[in-house]
Amino acid sequence: MLFCIVMESLEIVPMRAADLDEVMKIERLCFPSPWSRAFFSQQQRSPAFENFLARGKDGGRKRILGYICLLPVGGEVHILNVAVHPQFRRKGIATRLIDFSLDYCLTKGIREALLEVRRSNHQAQEMYKKLGFKEIGIERAYYSDNREDAIKMCREIERRPKFIADAMLGKLARWLRILGYDTTYFAKKADGDLIRIAKEQERIVLTRDTRLIKREDLGEFFFIQNNSHWKQLQEAYQGIELKVDPRFLLSRCLICNAEIERVAKESVRGKVPEYVFKTQERFFSCPDCQRIYWGATHRTNILQEIGQILGVKDLS
Known about the structure:
Layout: E1 5-7, E2 10-14, H1 20-30, H2 37-45, E3 50-58, E4 61-73, E5 76-84, H3 93-107, E6 112-118, H4 122-130, E7 134-139, E8 150-156, E9 163-165, H5 170-178, E10 183-185, H6 191-200, E11 204-207, E12 221-223, H7 229-239, E13 261-263, H8 274-279, E14 283-285, E15 292-294, H9 297-310
Parallel strand pairs: 5-6, 9-10, 9-11, 11-12
Antiparallel strand pairs: 1-2, 2-3, 3-4, 4-5, 6-8, 7-8, 13-14, 14-15
């Protein structure tokens, strides 16, 4: 079965032999010791490997922006290679490739993902940690080009529910995004369109509309009874058995729902208040709306509020 997905303008599809010219250009730009074309061709011929690539529009035409190479073995998958063209980095493409791959592996019954990353590649290590990977060991002199050590990382694969909230649940949608849950919200959307999007994107419908829940074509839904957004969050937390996972807290844009990405401090100069620029070191940006986020006291206040509402401790 052809397993592909379109996320906004980004399309993720299986890698084909015809794609190797573009793939090799990216491979050579990204790595000091790139894989050979023959090695990629060998993977294409072998049923053991699962390679995917991300396509997006650039100047009106579609081109390959990045790719990921997987080796499923039993109940685990080895992530062998993740590459994004240098011109298109810091746009969330690597994150989306990994998220897609883990979802794909979940459909195959795979429950664990493993990878190696250079000890000196701190940026990649941070991205993997954000995605839930944990360090499990060191592989000494792993890389042949300079005998550099590899950090071995691992994470369990689990499916986090995705939601679509009706027009009456805008504040709840915002709080679910704070918790890191993928939650689509439309201030105005016809019931039929809401149901169609939920089914196409495998989302649970969150609604307070008693008419909507009577529709036979609704699919999976959760009915919210309370008016207060605090009580709505408590209701969803208990009824859907949500998890408050520190890995995902404040990981999504509160405006457009996209996953935010760490950006260099210098890149936000002039885009944030001068006092904020001087006092903060960690900045994040939404790849879709370019909204900039940083820590400071409001993060602490939000985490305290979540703890009080849901009775959860140690969210720092």
